[in-house]
Amino acid sequence: MARRLYLFIIICVCTLKGLGQTQPDSTEVVQAINTFVDAFSNLKWEKFSDCWAEDATAFFPPSARYPYRAGSKQEILHIFKKVFENAGKQKSSPPHIIIQPLDVRIQMAGTTAIVTFTLDDPDLLGRRTLVLKKEDGKWLIIHLHASGAPMQK
Question: In whole angstroms, what is the distance from residue 135 CA to residue 145 CA?
Fold first, then answer.
């Protein structure tokens, strides 16, 4: 798990250098995303919950069987609670969910950050966008968009 987080940090730093990003907040965004990925992968519910702004919204992938926009932190957490419960039943030790962000890009816009990446799956390319805002000195997720595209064979 530590190796994956370290790899994720390296990918983000390299991406930031490639984009010419020198804003100090981008490092904080990387840390916020690492906290999110670690909490999600290891089913750390409280840390995971702390990653979200109260007014957050989300579009979930088809596997969530929730085609609508979730319109609040509470609604998002309600949906993710089921994901956490199912993942905990399928694997008894961490990491419960394997998340390996690929092709990470961070775009800074003042107190807003847009983080995009892909997740590799044999049949489906997972596409993720996280929008974060800095609130009281902390970067919080205000939007998640999760979709998938069939892999071309």
Answer: 20
Residue pair 142/69 in contact (Cβ under 8 Å)? The answer is no
Say yes or no to pLDDT of 45 above 70: yes
Q: Sign of torsion, CA 85 83 135 47?
A: positive
All residues at 6 or more sequence positions from 77 whose CB lies less than 8 Å from its CB, including other chains: 49, 52
pTM for the whole structure: 0.81
The DSSP letter of residue 97 is: S
pLDDT digits (tens, 9 = 90+) for 74-132: 999 999 999 999 888 888 788 888 888 999 999 999 999 999 999 987 778 899 999 99
Amino acid at 89: K
Residue 144 Cα to chain centre, angstroms:
7
Distance CA 15, CA 4 (A): 16
The H or E element containing residue 74 is helix 73-90
- The order of strands in the sheet holding 52-59 is 69-70, 52-59, 138-150, 124-135, 112-119, 102-109
Q: Which CATH number fits domain 2-150: 3.30.390.50, 3.30.499.10, 3.30.565.10, 3.10.450.50?
A: 3.10.450.50
Chain centroid, CA 2 distance in Å: 17
